[in-house]
Design brief:
Number of helices: 14
Shape: rod-shaped
Strand order of the largest sheet: 2-1-5-4-3
Low-confidence stretches: none
Oligomer: single chain
Helix content: 40-55%
Number of strands: 5
Largest sheet: 5 strands, antiparallel
Order of helices and strands: HEEHHHEEEHHHHHHHHHH
Radius of gyration: 37 Å
Strand content: 5-15%
């Protein structure tokens, strides 16, 4: 007995693993296969012949109606959307397509549904695994960077320990710089950044010849030119560590002058990183109030007066006034 084409088509649709729902041009459901019944948890006998809009919850009627109108547009082609069944905790991939006759007239639509819950959960597990892995890598990277910073701070201490005139200099500079920064910014990442730059600002001196660093007299011009390289050496040492890039920039320019006559880049005014301007004040004050082989230390009052006399020239006038306010109020110095 021969089987007609319609029966063959229906059998094919029934045996597909994907759910298939067909709607005619009046928006009535004319076919639902077994997979659609399972996936959508519907009964073909109950919804066949009904308007597809009315087969959805009332709150979805407007949205479903809008989708049907979209499918009627001449330019509309098949499109796929993910649908979540929150009650059942399932994920579906629905492909919606208009059905047209040989003359391109709209005669209905079809929805093909595929359960992608297992795939979705696998993707979520993979994403969670990657997130955990990234967090562990970030944690390890942070620990390595912290270890590097601690190593650099120890190296600075070792450098200073060779010269009794500079012992503790970097920590004192850091302390002054942090008090200035926190006075304006409070406890903040910016203040912490300036404090770390203070601790490491002379790390570049590891690349300076020891005979010049420890010379018990004033430096000759060519010797001073050599020691002027230490800010950029410091920047090169620290910049490869991502966490230290902003600190490295502050260190690179802490010997710039507000009038543009400093080094290494002859930057001036607001063109100098703000952290570098703060550091310049703290560094100069501690240097002036520390003994050197070739001169005695200035008193705190003398150093403060020297800073006031050089506001707008060597030092940022705004930050200089902040330093002086903290100095005369007894907060620093």
């Amino acid at each position: 007995m021969a089987t007609n084409n319609l029966e063959i088509f229906k059998a094919v649709l029934e045996q597909l693993p994907e759910g298939v729902v067909v709607v005619d041009d009046s928006d009535e459901i004319i076919f639902v296969n077994r997979a659609a019944e399972e996936i959508r948890r519907i009964s073909a006998t109950q919804i066949t012949g009904r308007n597809v809009v009315l087969c959805h919850p009332e709150k979805s009627h407007e949205r479903v109606g809008r989708a049907l109108q979209f499918l009627r547009r001449q330019e509309t082609r098949a499109f796929t959307r993910m649908v979540i069944d929150k009650e059942q905790g399932r994920y579906y991939e629905n492909t919606y397509a208009p059905v047209r006759d040989a003359a391109s007239n709209y005669i209905g639509s079809v929805v093909v549904s595929r359960d992608i819950t297992d795939k979705r959960r696998l993707e979520e597990e993979r994403a969670l695994h990657l997130q955990n892995l990234e967090e562990k890598v970030a944690e390890l990277s942070g620990k390595l960077q912290d270890l590097f910073i601690a190593s650099m701070a120890s190296l600075v201490k070792a450098l200073e320990a060779k010269d009794r005139y500079t012992q503790g200099h970097s920590l004192r500079v850091s302390d002054i710089a942090v008090k200035m920064a926190e006075h304006i910014w409070g406890v903040s990442p910016e203040a912490n950044e300036v404090g770390l730059a203070g601790k490491l600002h002379d790390i570049g001196k590891v690349g300076i010849r020891e005979m010049i660093l420890n010379k018990p007299a004033r430096l000759a011009d060519e010797e001073f030119e050599h020691i002027k390289a230490h800010p950029l050496i410091g920047e090169r040492i620290l910049a490869p560590i991502e966490k230290l890039k902003p600190v490295a920039k502050v260190i690179a320019h802490h010997h710039e002058r507000y009038d543009g006559k400093g080094y290494p880049a002859s930057l001036g005014g607001e063109g100098i990183p703000v952290g570098s301007r703060i550091l310049a004040l703290a560094d100069s004050y501690d240097a002036m109030t520390s003994a050197r082989p070739y001169r005695p230390p200035k008193s705190a009052e003398e150093a403060a007066k020297e800073i006031r006399n050089n506001l707008g020239r060597q030092f940022d006038p705004r930050w200089g006034e902040i330093f002086l306010e903290l100095f005369y109020s007894g907060s620093i110095g």
